[in-house]
Design goal:
Blueprint: E1 8-12, E2 16-22, E3 33-39, H1 41-51, E4 55-63, H2 66-78, E5 81-88, E6 96-99, E7 108-111, H3 122-125, E8 135-139, H4 148-161, E9 166-169, H5 180-193, E10 196-200, H6 201-208, H7 214-224, E11 228-232, E12 238-242, E13 246-249, H8 262-275, H9 280-295, H10 307-316
């Protein structure tokens, strides 16, 4: 098992603004009011871990405008270390997502043209002292464009040189990539570096060249050297692979308000559980519980549970589904 006990993490990737039509259930086209909060996969993961008591530093770029400043203020509010967050000017803009708090006919509109976070440079990832952290965490969206892609792979090299495990959420967003082939090749290259790989069945299937091949792809990555691979299947639970074992876990059924934020919350709860000394299977279940909590709340970053909220949920929920 990888050692995350220092509970300090370096997270690379985007943070931005999410706008939710208000009140919950409102369609975007019918909205007259919106609720604003921090969003972006890496920003959400950093917040999730911070709420579980970890210390997290984020490496990314934000736009030199009101939305960028909103993002910085939100990171400060949650206690995420942003000393490695760079501000960029010109026409680059922060990620902006308009996301509905509804499951039926859910709509999410994400603006990523000229994204500021893709302007992360190799010199930006050279700034942190990697030896200060227990692991490097990133998501696949950071690899979708240059110069962020090269910078991220340089961060991988620096992390490995410092002896840090690499934790990777596949997080495939087709709209960010020039082609599916480019994405598949880049993800395969990234996976070769990583010690922990987390994704859903569609993402592993994409990497393998076919949905029906995804499970074997996950199993092959574990055999090739990844310490932990988590293959998530939505309401069917997850299959976890390690060098020692392979097992299936269920989910904690809830009435969802929205489908978004679950993956980021899973990552936060899972990594926090490993850092706290929980066994691998228990860590997967705690991550699953965190995912269930978030889909029942408004927003992503503000919806991430604290450890106390997770413990209360576990104490009052009848337990995970049987698989």
């Amino acid at each position: 098992m990888i050692d995350l006990s220092s509970n300090r993490f370096l997270v690379i990737g985007r943070a931005g603004m999410d706008l939710y039509p208000d009140p919950p259930g409102t369609k975007t086209e019918d909205a007259t009011k919106f609720f604003a909060c921090l969003g972006g996969s890496s920003g959400n993961i950093a917040v999730a871990l911070t709420k579980h008591g970890a210390r997290c530093a984020l490496v990314t770029s934000v736009s030199d405008d009101a939305v960028g400043r909103f993002t910085l203020n939100e990171l400060d509010k949650y206690g995420v270390d942003r000393r490695y967050v760079k501000t960029v000017g010109g026409e680059f803009r922060n990620t902006l997502a308009i996301v509905e708090t509804r499951v039926e006919d859910h709509q999410s509109v994400i603006y990523r043209n000229g994204a500021a976070d893709f302007q992360m440079l190799p010199e930006d990832v050279a700034r942190p002292d990697y030896a200060d952290y227990a692991a490097l965490i990133t998501t696949g969206t950071v690899l979708a464009a240059q110069p962020s892609r090269d910078a991220t792979f340089q961060a991988f090299d620096r992390a490995r040189a410092a002896g840090l495990p690499l934790i990777f959420d596949i997080d495939y967003r087709p709209y960010s990539w020039p082609s599916a082939q480019d994405a598949a090749e880049t993800y395969s290259r990234a996976a070769d570096y990583c010690d922990v790989i987390i994704g859903n069945d569609v993402e592993f299937g994409f990497m393998a060249g076919g949905y029906d091949k995804g499970l074997e792809k996950a199993r092959a990555l574990a055999k090739a050297g990844a310490a932990i691979v988590v293959y998530k299947m939505g309401e069917l639970g997850a299959i976890t692979f390690s060098a020692e074992d392979e097992y299936r876990t269920g989910i904690y059924a809830v009435t969802a308000l929205k489908p978004t934020g679950a993956g980021d919350s899973f990552m936060g709860g899972f990594v926090a559980a490993l850092a706290a000394g929980h066994g691998l299977q228990d860590a997967v279940l705690r991550g699953s519980a965190c995912a269930s909590i978030v889909v029942g709340r408004v927003g992503c970053a503000p919806a991430m549970p604290t450890t106390a909220e997770l413990e209360e949920f576990l104490a009052n929920h009848p337990g995970p589904s049987h698989t």
